[in-house]
Structures are given as C-alpha cells and as structure tokens.
Write a structure and sequence with these properties.
CATH topology of the largest domain: Rossmann fold
CATH class of the largest domain: Alpha Beta
Number of domains: 2
Helix content: 10-25%
Distance between the termini: 49 Å
Shape: globular
Strand content: 25-35%
Largest sheet: 10 strands, antiparallel
Number of strands: 21
Radius of gyration: 23 Å
Structural class: alpha+beta
Number of helices: 8
CATH architecture of the largest domain: 3-Layer(aba) Sandwich
Amino acid sequence: MKRNCCLLTSFLLIQLVSISLYSQSLYEIKFSDKKNNKYKGFLVYFNETNAYMRIAYNYNNQYNVVNVSYISKNGTTDRGTQYTMLTGYDPVYVTDNKAGLRYNPDYFIWFYNSREQKWDTPYTTDDSLLNANNYLRVDSYTKLDPGNITDEYLREFFGSAESQYFSLKRMCGHNTGTDDGTRDKGRNGSNNDTKKYGSSATLHLVLVANTLDPSIGTGCATDEKNLRNEFSEVADALGVSLKEYIIDGASFSKQSVLAELNSLSPASNDIVMFIYRGHGFRWKGQAEDWPRMDLRPSSYAPINDNTSMNLQDVYAAVKNKGARLSIILADCCNSEVDVSSVTTTNYLTLQLDNNSDVSKLKKLFMSANGTILSSAAQKGEVSWTTPQGGLYCMSFLQALREGISYLSDYPCNWNNIISKTITLARNKSTPAYCPNCTLQDGIKYISVAGDY
C-alpha cells in the first residue's frame, strides 16, 4: 500500500510525437482504485517532458489535491508490441496534508494495436514490476473546452492565489480585467483588437516539401498540412494577410524554389517564413555548418549544384528582401549523401488545443525585427522523420504553441522558441522515445530585436 488509501493515479493520454502537437491541452480524468475509491484528475499537457496533473480525492472526509509532474517513454515488449509508458514524479500536495498522506504516482501504459492501427485504451498500475495481472483500465477521459470551464470548476484543483489559477482563468476567459467584463477570446476569438495590430502587414509563407518521395513523402505532406494550418491561424489571429508560396509534388525542384524566391517581394513591415521539408546532405569535406537542400524531383536524378541548394544561400536571399522579420527553417539531414533518416516508430497522439495568448503572439510576430536561421541537425547528423511528420517540424509547432500559451512560465521570444524546438527534437530522438534513432541536435542563428 503506497499511502493511507490504495490510490491508483489517473491516466494521461500523453503525446510523444504527433500530427497535432501544439499548445497546452486540458483534460479531465475520472478513475477508481481497486477498492472503488473515486478520483478526479485535471491534466495540463505541453509536451512529452512537460505535463502535470492535479488530482482531487477524498480520504477520511478530507478533501485532497495533489500536483504530479509527468514524463513518458516508448518501448517494445518481448512479443514485439509497441507501448508508451507514462511515469509521474515530484508529487506535491496543494491542500493541507494534515493526515500525512503519501502520494506515489503510478505507471500508465498504452499498447499499440497494429491490427487496427491505433492505440488501445490505456492501463494503469502501481506495480513497479509491471505485472500485467495488476493492470486496471481507466474509468473516463474527457477533453475539456476552455470556453466551457467555469471558475468553480477550476477551484476544485487550484488555490485562489496560485499563478496557474490566474493563467487558466485568462485562458478560459474569466476576469481578464476588461472594463466591460467581456471574455478574452483567445487565439481563435473575435476580439476586434487583434485586427488593429497588423492590418498593414503580410505574412509570406514559403513551404518547400518533398511530398512525393517514397521514403519521407508521407511525413513531409503531414508537416506541410500542419504548417499551413498553423500559419493560417496565426495570420487570422493577428489580423494580417497571408500569402502562400507552396512548392511540393511535381513542382518540387531547385528551379521552382529560385522562381518563388525571385517573386518574393515583401514590404518593410512584412514577415517571411521559409520552411524546407525534405532530404538534406553535405558534400564530403564541406566546412560549411549548414546543410544543402536536396531538390531533386526524383531520387534517380543526379545530385549536384543544379539539383541542390545551400540553406545559407536561402537565408541570404530572403534577408535581402528587406522584410521586418525573416525566419528560415529546415527539417532535413546534415550528413553525407545516402544516409537514411526514416523511423517506423509509432507514436501515441493527443488532440491539443489552440487557445493561446494573442498578446504573446503579437510580441513574436509584430514586435520582433530581424532574422532567424535554424536547421534540424548538426553536421554529420541525420534528421529523423516518421509518417506523422519530422521530429524538428513537429517540435517547432510544439514549441511555438507552448511559447504563446497562457500557461507558459518562460519568456516568449524567438530565442526561447527555437532553442525549445531543438531541445524537443533531440528528446524525441533519444532511445526513450525512438529506440532506433540516433541523436539529432539542431543548430540556430538568431539576430532578432524587439521580442525580449
């Protein structure tokens, strides 16, 4: 018995690498232990190394709330079944713990059903030996809409003086300090103030994706879709125009990239996002740190200067266009030619919210001035991709959403977001999350003023 009552902690549908892995997501979990004691959990999820849950329960007529942090890892059973296991740590009672209760977080395990191509309903156990006879199914799991969360509900899990409580209230649209008592509409709301911040600006999105490649095309296509959706929402939230330049499918070539770069003509207050998703390489003996983009329309075509382009050359071309903010990102390998970078590892997915703090979004895109260059791997490294997307691209979306979250407690600026992107992508390439991957460490160059 771990504490005064035999409590099995609630489960958490953790996302490791996902096709929709953005900002914080809120869930309610109701569960029971072997003695049918009832518990209620409130999950706040950011990424595979940053999640916490508030768990409320009664014991001896005492109402208790405990905060537990979570991490997770992937693995394969002896029978070859892939699984994801979640482990809690650092349990802290939020309420007075006069009874001296102990809270030891449990294991939560999802098994991948290869026949149905999905993750089965999770199990939970407090058995450190992970004996399957001690597994229990969870009772219920509900995704929460912040717009429907009441202040009374939040007070079930948070004290009135906690910073998380105030952040959640803002996220849910309560008591935001407006004189007329209106709700803070958040990122997808209809707050007319968002339109006045960038009405004269345009967001230019240049996406180059090798969507027809037989090995990485599926992941590239997924990333392209997610990136287009993301920046469509960003432009809408900021009230700026969006202009897309899409190079994919049969149009994927160096000539197409050069043509779009030549046609790019941003105004002085505009934003340019150039993102490459495809194969990357470096010449043998190349001293340059940045990778070359492999822009061959077919893997049978020769690889040379006419079918490839150095990322730093793209950076120079975009920078010379004179936009207020220029961001050039590449999710590709940085190793010598013909190194594979595909993993078939399946990842558990979690639907995540896009309710974010528009004021932070404005700071990033409307106040910042300068240039950013970053790629997914250092020289000699590969950049891993899955059918669900590239680790770097997914981590970028994750870091961006976390940075502009109401609940984020670190400064929202481009240096932190790109650094977080690199860290998250590296974490995803570790054996705990991708057993057959090698480590990838991204590189960055940031020269931005006004977002600190």
